[in-house]
Design brief:
The protein has 2 domains: about 80 residues; about 90 residues, OB fold (Dihydrolipoamide Acetyltransferase, E2P) (Beta Barrel). It has a 5-stranded antiparallel sheet. By secondary structure, the chain is of the alpha+beta class. The chain is elongated. Helices cover about 55% and strands about 20% of the residues.
Length: about 200
């Protein structure tokens, strides 16, 4: 039993160090997603609430597959329903395929067949309302932002920051434990070596 405990104690610094690295990576991912959503997607949702709109036409369909790196219960592969459409602003032709700025409305984390169901709501040739940015008409969406979207994404951002703090805290504790255990093991080894020399 003592031998087993000795092996566990000897290998603990390596195990704790590896776990510290993993939790550190989770912390970094959580931080990156929180910053991305807060600085890019949330402002877009809020701005699109005031965007003007024009008539557009559905020209095609596409389903994008993206490897999901989110810390959630989403499937490994995220599916984005992308109905392609064309529209005209100030006499200039534009095209887009953004259904919504909110992931849930874009088919993220759902099965491919569910994304296909979303696209069936937008048959080719259908006339739709296209909401576009007055500052950059090439940026557009079929579903503009609303307060529910804003609240939902703000909740996600808060969750990612919470994950960041949690994983950072765990990582710091593991790093401290790694250092202390390694130091204790070195001291013990040195002490045993000194005893063996005296004998």
């Amino acid at each position: 039993m003592t031998g087993i405990l000795g092996v566990i104690k000897k290998n603990f610094p390596y195990t704790a160090g590896a776990l510290a690295l993993v939790t550190g990576l989770f912390a970094h991912s959580s931080w990156s997603l929180a910053v991305k959503y807060e600085q890019k997607e949330l402002p877009m949702i809020i701005d699109s609430m005031k965007w003007p709109s024009v008539s557009g036409r559905i020209t095609g369909h596409d389903i994008a597959e993206v490897e999901s790196g989110r810390l959630s219960h989403s499937p490994k592969t995220a599916y984005y329903a992308e109905p392609a459409y064309s529209y005209i602003v100030n006499g200039k032709n534009y095209s887009g395929k953004k259904l919504s700025f909110l992931h849930a409305n874009n088919g993220t984390g759902i099965k491919r067949e569910d994304a296909e169901k979303i696209l069936k709501k937008y048959p080719v040739g259908t006339i739709v309302r296209v909401y576009y940015s007055p500052a950059k008409p090439s940026v557009s969406t079929l579903i503009p932002g609303n307060r529910e979207m804003e609240k939902g994404l703000a909740g996600e951002i808060s969750s990612f920051y919470s994950f960041f703090m949690l994983f950072t805290g765990i990582s710091v504790v593991l790093i401290i434990a790694t250092v202390l255990t390694a130091e204790e093991f070195r001291s013990s080894e040195k002490k045993n070596n000194n005893i063996q020399r005296r004998q």
